Amino acid sequence: MTVPTSAAPPVSAAVSAGAPSGRAVRLSDLVGYHLRRASVFDLNGAVAALEPEGLRPVPMSVLQSIVEQPGISAAEVCRALGMQRANIVPVLADLDRRGFFLREADPADNRIQRLFPTRRGLEEAQRALARVAAHEARMLARLSPAERAELRRLLGLIWKTDSPDGADTPDG
Amino acid sequence: MTVPTSAAPPVSAAVSAGAPSGRAVRLSDLVGYHLRRASVFDLNGAVAALEPEGLRPVPMSVLQSIVEQPGISAAEVCRALGMQRANIVPVLADLDRRGFFLREADPADNRIQRLFPTRRGLEEAQRALARVAAHEARMLARLSPAERAELRRLLGLIWKTDSPDGADTPDG
DNA sequence: GTGATAATGCTATACACCATAACAGTCAAT
DNA sequence: ATTGACTGTTATGGTGTATAGCATTATCAC
């Protein structure tokens, strides 16, 4: 843990807690570092929480999107979740195989399939969301309700762009 | 965008902004959802910012760890960054090939290699960190300094466990 | 000492996730 | 009528990470 014989003086002696005046000097000064660590931590917990339902975070989000917006198309789900059209195909195939939603041809546009949740899909989405919510309750136990809301707000400020479609790349 | 003919009533009518009384009802009520979206958004920007340096986020973090704690071992870097020992090998091989650090045998333990940054490594780490910091400045432009510090604090509360080694899984 | 346990650095490998390119079918606009 | 754009889809490659196992070395109990 400690630096051995010929070690250089500790660089971290320069700064204490937050990023100082100008730029970051330590890895832990970067918001992105904590963002990544927290996201991975949460994702692992979410995967474990969803495991009894046989769902992964992405399929759960897709199903939830269909439940929240019945009649949504696959492409619209992709734009809403920031994923690629090609990658939703196997996800929908699995959710379809399990009877969680139905595909209905759009009467006005033959390219589009409208997705509607089934009864089973509604129930599964509710169960899955409850499990993830329970995981979050444990994860955020040290945060007050106000702090959780503030965290959601600050995170939303980061990734939600002004354009309706959330582009996953900054510096557009 | 809008739901066609036989659409069900909008589920989102139940709640407004934050998570209501008990559990989440929408995907956007989950902190983890915003955490993921924000993390992906940041990661894309960090990758783009580091591209001129020929570094990726993980190698950059490894190099930065060596710079911040000269004499650290590979296993210690892995524990600090929450990565697997097996996965740091090619990362160190590349950083070594580029002459960013030196391996020095620990005089007290022949298993351990102590890692020390070279002059080139120090400069590269400084350049890389500056680029990432510049990316973050753009990404967090809408947040006040106080909000950025608060965000760092709240994120740290999520993933930093009580144990010195940050385990990336909740519900231990 | 000797044996059991554990840690380090490393190899090989497999899986999950995401991105890109391309395609046919359909729609809209000029 | 042709061009361009969108949808769903297939195929494919790259990346990040996790797992299993190995030889070497250190530590601890006996």
General description of the model:
2 copies of one chain form a homodimer. Chain A is 52% helix and 10% strand. The first copy, chain A, is mainly alpha-helical. Chain A has a single domain, classed as Arc Repressor Mutant, subunit A (Orthogonal Bundle), CATH 1.10.10. In chain A, helix 2 (57-68) crosses helix 3, helix 2 (57-68) packs across helix 4 (85-97) and helix 2 (57-68) packs across helix 5. The longest helix of chain A is centred in the C-terminal third of the chain and has 21 residues, at 119-139. The model of chain A is unreliable at 1-21 (pLDDT under 50). At the A-B interface, helix 1, helix 2, helix 5 and helix 6 of A face helix 1, helix 2, helix 5 and helix 6 of B. Chain A binds a DNA duplex (30 and 30 nucleotides) through residues 56, 58, 73-75, 83-89, 92, 109-113.
How do the strands and helices of this protein lay out in sequence?
2 copies of one chain form a homodimer.
Chain A lengths: L30 H20 L6 H12 L3 E2 H8 L3 H13 L3 E6 L2 E9 L1 H21 L5 H15 L13
Antiparallel strand pairs in A: 1-3, 2-3
The structure holds a DNA duplex (30 and 30 nucleotides).
Largest interface: A-B, 82 and 83 residues
Radius of gyration of chain A: 21 Å
* Mean residue pLDDT of chain A: 85
| Number of self-contained structural domains of chain A | 1
- The fraction of residues in strands of chain A falls at 5-15%
Distance between the termini of chain A: 42 Å
CATH classification, class level of chain A: Mainly Alpha
CATH structural architecture of chain A: Orthogonal Bundle
Class computed from helices, strands and strand pairing of chain A: mainly alpha
Q: Enter the CATH topology name of chain A.
A: Arc Repressor Mutant, subunit A
Helix content of chain A: 40-55%
Number of helices of chain A: 6
**General shape of chain A:** globular
Largest sheet of chain A: 3 strands, antiparallel
Order of strands across the main sheet of chain A: 1-3-2
